[in-house]
Amino acid sequence: MGDISVGVIDQAAYIQVFGEPTPTFRRQTLEMLKSVLETKPRRAQTSIFIEMLEPAEFHMRYQDIIPRSHWQTDAGIQGQQMILSLNFELGGSMNVPELMRHWVINTGAKRLFQAQDDAYQTAYTWAQKNLPKPIFMSAGDYSSTESMENDEPAIELGFPYYDKDLTVEEKLQDGNEAKGYVVGIYYFDRKVFSKLRKKAEF
User: Fold this and answer.
1) Do 97 and 11 have their domain in common?
2) Domain limits for position 20
């Protein structure tokens, strides 16, 4: 089990786990939590918030107990250090296999930057083969939707394409809208961007 910091606010328990968020590690985290909840008297906290953070972040801001003040300021936003998160309400027994399908990718995570660059390269190659030319795309132009329920964390990414080379300022001007988007799904564990297709809007 990885390093953990915990905190409580009203009816919510916050659990931060610092370690490599592999499928095995995520499952072990949930199974550990389930065993604790099933052997202890039910607490007042019914909302569970789990965040998986970069291992090196452990004890950088606080120790094992997360101070309440941390959540009352912008410091409570983990930013680039948070990799995945999972929020749920306690009911009966925790269904670990079902909860495993609901991990959410933090698209602002530091380690996702490379994934976004790799996804762009895949999208660009696909566009060159499948769309009418000329095609202009930029690695910095991407949009994302919310994480998708899936057997592994997944998120849809869309890269706009144009029929002429435009500056950032020109792209914001009327009449210079994107011709469409190359859209695909990024799978966190396998580190692949697939199921590519064209969409008029994203």
Assistant:
1) yes
2) 3-105
